[in-house]
Amino acid sequence: MSYYTKWIYRFIIVCILLSCSTQKKKTTIQIQSGLVGIIGYGSLMSRQSMESTLKRAYQDSIYIVHLEDFIRDWNWHLSLKDTRLQERFSNSVWFYICGNDTISLNNVISLNIISSEKNRMNCVLYFITPDELAEFDEREIGYERIDVTNKIEEFDFKDGKVYAYKAKPEQIYKPQLDRGNSRIQQSYVDLVENACDSIGIDFRKEFEESTMQYDPELVAPVIWKTVIK
């Protein structure tokens, strides 16, 4: 073996060792029996909003974590006439006010997560019971629950799973078809941003960096509803 070849081999070995040494070492969390992890990346970052579904004060640990290979996008989309919503808001008609005009509202847009290789997004991790998880399944209309146990940057998990909610393909907002009668609620934007701010300036900054920007023209300052009797 020539001197040059030996030098190349040594250089490769050093690079490999340096790469290994710079990798972040994960801490292992053993999930208690009877609990599962749930990721909050939008409204669920708000403890108050989370507890409204939980129907109790949350008293377990809360972790600030990063979800690998995902970013947020404002592309969850649902018709306000969807039967699943009508079960909650029977006979409701929705509208918003733009200037002096009252405009009927057909669809709402909210946050979702989309696959984005080699990117990461900050979020919040809670632990709840499977029965409580079923309540969140009911809350997250138009989303499917996905397993993200192996996508948490900071931790490995033992004896349990961690889940997040991702919009079903049929619930994805399509600007070319849906823009004219779809809006984002300002109150929803405020809820998410206030949740970020309550965690800290750095968290809010990371949120902005890992979230696709929405079109400001899609935001409705106030959304109203009337009930037809």
CATH superfamily: Gamma-glutamyl cyclotransferase-like
Specify the number of helices.
7
Name the structural class: alpha/beta
Average pLDDT figure:
86
Shape: globular
Task: Provide the fold topology.
Blueprint: H1 3-22, E1 27-30, E2 36-40, H2 47-54, E3 63-79, H3 83-86, E4 92-98, E5 101-104, E6 107-128, H4 130-139, E7 143-147, E8 155-158, E9 162-167, H5 175-178, E10 182-185, H6 186-199, H7 201-209, E11 219-220, E12 223-227
Parallel strand pairs: 1-8, 2-9, 6-10, 10-11
Antiparallel strand pairs: 2-6, 3-6, 4-5, 4-12, 7-9
Describe the structure.
This protein is an alpha/beta fold and 229 residues long. It has one domain (25-227): Roll (Hypothetical upf0131 protein ytfp). It has 7 helices and 12 strands. Strands 2, 3, 6, 7, 9, 10 and 11 form a 7-stranded mixed β-sheet that branches. A hairpin with a 2-residue loop joins strand 4 (92-98) and strand 5 (101-104). Helix 6 packs across helix 7 (201-209). The longest helix is centred in the N-terminal third of the chain and has 20 residues, at 3-22. The N and C termini lie far apart (89 Å). The model is unreliable at 3-22 (pLDDT under 50).
Describe this protein with a few key phrases.
12 strands; globular; Hypothetical upf0131 protein ytfp; 229 residues; alpha/beta
Overview in brief:
With 229 residues, the protein is an alpha/beta fold.
